[in-house]
C-alpha cells in the first residue's frame, strides 16, 4: 500500500504494520513522526545539529520497541515526545550546570528599512527561543508542548507523568518567566501593539 | 470555549510570539529525512505472513497441538485414555469373571472352542 494512502491510519496501526514488515508503513511513520521529533528537539535544545541526533536516537528506540508494542499500552506520540524530551534534558544537563543568563545572549541586529516586518518576525522567533533556553527544563518542556506543539493539558500530563494541575502550574510559571525575560524587548519585538 | 481560544487567553501578551513560532515550525532537512527512512527500513523486522496484531502461539502450545493432530484429535485421545484406564483396572482389580474367562485349563478351553464332537470323530473312523 502506498504510504499516502495510510494517512487515515493511527500511529499505533502503522507501528503494528511496521513490526509486521510493511515498508510503506515504515515510510509513512518517518514522514509523520520524523518532523515532530525533530521540531520538539529543536525547541528544547535550540540547536538543529543536536536536535537531529536526539530525534534520530528517539526514532531508533521506537523502531526497536515496535515488535513488543501492545495495543492500548501507550500512544505512540506520547511515548515519542517523552523520549525526545528526556534525551534533550540529558543533553542540557551535560552541556551546562545552571541556566543561561539572558544578558549573555547577543542582541539581534537592527532591522533594515523596508524589511522591518520580516526581521521583526525573525527577531521574535530568536528572542522566544533564547528566552525558552533560560527557563528551567521542566517549565520549558511544558511551555513548548502547550504553546508551540499545541497539545492539551491532559496530553502534556501523560507525557510528563504529572497531574493536569501540575502542568497548568508549570506552564503558568513558564509564561510568567518568559514575560519577565522579554519585558525589556517588547517595543523591539513589536508585540505591545498586536 | 475551544481549546485554541483557551490557549490564546492563557498566552496573553505573549500570543504574537507563540503564534509566529507555531507558524514557522522547525523542519528537518531532506537529507536527514532520507537517512531516517533508511534507518527505519534497516531496523524493520522481516515481513511475516500472519497479522501482527494477533499474538503468536507459544512454542509449547503449538507442539502439543501438532502431536494431538498426529494422534487423530480429541476423539482418538479420549479412546486411548479409556483403553488405558480399562487396562489399569483389569491389572489392579483382577475381577473373578475375567480370571475364569482367561483360565489356563486346556480341556475346558478346547471343548469350548472345538466345533466337532466325539460322535463326529467316530463316524470319521478316527
TrEMBL record, chain A:
Q: Which Pfam families match?
A: Sigma70_r2, Sigma70_r4_2
UniProt keywords (A-Z) are:
DNA-binding, Sigma factor, Transcription, Transcription regulation
Family matches, as InterPro entries: RNA_pol_sigma-70-like (IPR039425), RNA_pol_sigma-70_dom (IPR014284), RNA_pol_sigma70_r2 (IPR007627), RNA_pol_sigma70_r4_t2 (IPR013249), RNA_pol_sigma_r2 (IPR013325), RNA_pol_sigma_r3/r4-like (IPR013324), WH-like_DNA-bd_sf (IPR036388)
Q: Which domain of life is it from?
A: Bacteria
Q: Which residues form the RNA polymerase sigma-70 region domain?
A: 29-96
Residue stretches in coiled coil: none
Known CDD domains for this protein?
Sigma70_r4 (cd06171)
> Where's the RNA polymerase sigma factor 70 region 4 type domain?
127-178
Signal peptide, first to last residue: none
The UniProt family comment states: Belongs to the sigma-70 factor family. ECF subfamily.
**Protein name according to UniProt:** RNA polymerase sigma factor
What organism is listed for this UniProt entry?
A: Salipiger mangrovisoli
